[in-house]
Amino acid sequence: MASVTLKSNESQESLLRRFRKKVTNSGILSTVRRKRWHISKSELRRIEKKKAIRRARRRQRKTGS
């Protein structure tokens, strides 16, 4: 579980910003979203393959231009 403590002279906005960054870096939300519904292993492999193809295309576009 991500937790932050209020530093001296720290505003609530910066505390919240630090907390959000910590939660994002820990990957808690992505894990929760992924486990929200059951996805079969074959479906998960298909999704991961699709993501890999998109990543490769983006890299190719960046280096190609």
Mean pLDDT across the residues is 90
In the residues, how many domains can be counted? 1
Cα radius of gyration in angstroms = 18 Å
Number of helices: 3
Span of the ends, CA to CA: 42 Å
Tell me the number of strands. 0
Low-confidence stretches: none
Q: Short summary of the structure?
A:
This protein has helices at about 10-25, 30-35, 40-65. It is mainly α and about 60 residues long.
Explain this structure:
With 65 residues, the protein is mainly alpha-helical. It has one domain (12-64). The chain has helices at 12-26, 28-34, 41-64. The longest helix is centred in the last third of the chain and has 24 residues, at 41-64. The protein is flat and about 45 Å long. The chain starts with 11 loop residues before the first helix and ends with a helix.
Comma- or semicolon-separated keywords:
about 60 residues, mainly alpha, flat
Topology readout:
Blueprint: H1 12-26, H2 28-34, H3 41-64
